Amino acid sequence: MEKSKNTNYIRYIITLIVLITLFVILILLNIKLGSVDVSVKDIIDILFHGSGNETNYNILWKVRLPRMMASIILGGALALSGFLLQTFFNNPIAGPYVLGISSGSKMMVALVMIAVLSRYHYVNSAALIIAAFAGAMLSMGFVLIISRKVNSVSMLIVCGVMIGYICSAITDIMITFADDANIVNLHNWSLGSFSGTSWKNVGVMASVVLPTSLIVFLMSKPIGAYQLGENYAKNMGINIKLFRIMLVLLSSFLCACVTAFAGPISFVGIAVPHLVKSFLKTSKPLIVTPICFLGGSVFCLGCDLIARTLFAPVELSVSTVSSIFGVPIVIYIMLKKRVH
């Protein structure tokens, strides 16, 4: 027993060290690399002395740093959202993108953007988050209704994908009839990207995601009890109905914040929690929650770096890159679990 605990502790420390190392390396690469390569000397002068080339100064402070912070915050939010959904449905394939929740958020945000941008030139961040949350709850409502009618995990996934297609189709119709001036912005946003992030956006997303993530961490004990079964959780004094509502609200809120600022980012919510639990050999929320957030940040930092630099100055969407890495993981999970 003691040997098993020591092994788990060592595995946890190794995973943490690897993720922190990757985190630091990717931060440095995200700062330095891009369509314009900034020298190490300029980076040091700009970050620590406030001097250096004016063009490079603007590139770092107004473009790369806020974008990097967005990928860290929103990547962690996506991974946590996926972990909560997997806990709620007791299903390793559950995630905000696969279940159509991201698409529901995208639909409502597109509707608000088209309605507001046709009259004004600015959309309030709070309005986008509220719209995204409403869309997430709408899609989640349909998924919950379907989950009560079907016992098959694969059928639930198929229905979630169908909901996503319907929401995406409605979004495409709205974009078709949008003003020409708004179509480019809507199209780029709908593909999923951290580009165009400002420090004001970073402040808003941090004020939403970080407190929500802290609440998830503080709920580690009831989440752990729920993972052992509803009857066990009831015996531990947990109000199951209220607890399930909290899981839905928290996961939808995290997903909504991501969609509002970056559009739908695919497969992060499935791939990262699965990889974290596989490396740690445990699903204990007290351990998994912080590592999951860090893992989501690392995953999105890497995907965004590839999206920006692979074909620079042409930029890929983050969702395209995350799909390339995420889809094989999802296929592996389905084959391993033999989902029926």
Short description:
With 340 residues, this protein is an all-alpha fold. Helix content is 79%, strand content 0%.
Head-to-tail CA distance between termini: 35 Å
Query: Beta-strand level of the residues, as a percent range?
Result: under 5%
- In percent, how helical is the residue content? over 70%
- State the shape: globular
* Biggest beta sheet summary: none
Order of helices and strands: HHHHHHHHHHHHHH
Counted up, domains total 1
> Helix tally?
14
Number of strands: 0
Poorly predicted parts: none
Helix/strand-derived category reads: mainly alpha
CATH class, please?
Answer: Mainly Alpha
What is the fourth-level CATH superfamily? ABC transporter involved in vitamin B12 uptake, BtuC
| Mean pLDDT across all amino acids | 84
GO molecular function: transmembrane transporter activity
Protein name: Iron ABC transporter permease
GO cellular component, one term: plasma membrane
Subcellular location: Cell membrane
What does the secondary structure layout of this molecule look like, with pairings?
Layout: H1 2-32, H2 40-49, H3 54-89, H4 101-117, H5 125-149, H6 153-176, H7 180-191, H8 199-218, H9 220-227, H10 230-235, H11 240-262, H12 268-280, H13 285-309, H14 318-337
Helix pairs in contact: 1-13, 3-8, 3-11, 3-12, 3-13, 4-5, 4-6, 4-11, 5-6, 5-11, 8-11, 8-13, 12-13, 12-14, 13-14
Q: How would you describe what is shown here?
A:
By secondary structure, the chain is mainly α. The protein has one domain: ABC transporter involved in vitamin B12 uptake, BtuC (Orthogonal Bundle), CATH 1.10.3470. It is built from 14 helices and no strands. The protein has helices at residues 2-32, 40-49, 54-89, 101-117, 125-149, 153-176, 180-191, 199-218, 220-227, 230-235, 240-262, 268-280, 285-309, 318-337. The longest helix is centred in the N-terminal third of the chain and has 36 residues, at 54-89.
